[in-house]
Amino acid sequence: MLKHMIGAALALGVSAGAAWADWAPSGPIKLWIGFGAGGETDTLGRLIGKEMSDATGWTVVVENKPGGGGIAMFTQLATVPADGQTIGMGVSMPVLVNLTVRADQVPFTLDSFDYLASVASAQLAIVARKDAPFDDLAGLLDHAASSDGALVGFDAKPQELLLNVLNKDGGALRPVSMKSSAELVQNLLGGHLDAAFNAGTHIPYLDSGELKMIASANAGRHSYAPDTPTVREQGYDIYVDPVFYIAAPAGLGDDVQSVLSDALLAAMNADTVRDAIQNALHTEPSGDGPEATRAMMDDGMKNVATLFGK
Amino acid sequence: MPDLATILAGFGDAFTLLNLAYVLFGVVIGQFVGAVPGIGPVMAMAIAIPFTFALDPLVAISFLVGINKGGLFGGAIPSILINTPGTPDAAATALDGHPLAASGKPGKATRMALYASVTGDTFSDLVLIFLSAPIAILALRMGPVEVCALMLFAFSILAGLIGPSLLRGLVAAVLGVLCATVGLDPEHGTPRFYFGWFELYDGPSLVAVAIGMLAVAEILRRMAAVTRDSQPGAIRVQGDGDDRLSLAEYLSCRFVMLRGAVIGTILGAVPGLGSTAAAYMSYAATRQGDDGGVPFGKGNIKGIAATESANSAVVGANLIPLLGIGIPGSISAALLISAFKIHGIQPGPLLFENQARLIYGLFGAMLMANLTNLIVGQASLRLWVFAIRAPTSVIFPSALVFCIVGVYLSTGGMFGVALMFIAALVSLAMSACGFPVIVFIIAFFLGEGFERSLSQTLVILNGSSGALLGHPIALVLLAMAIGLAIWLGRGGRGQPG
Question: Which residue of B has its CA nearest to A281?
Answer without folding.
Answer: B341
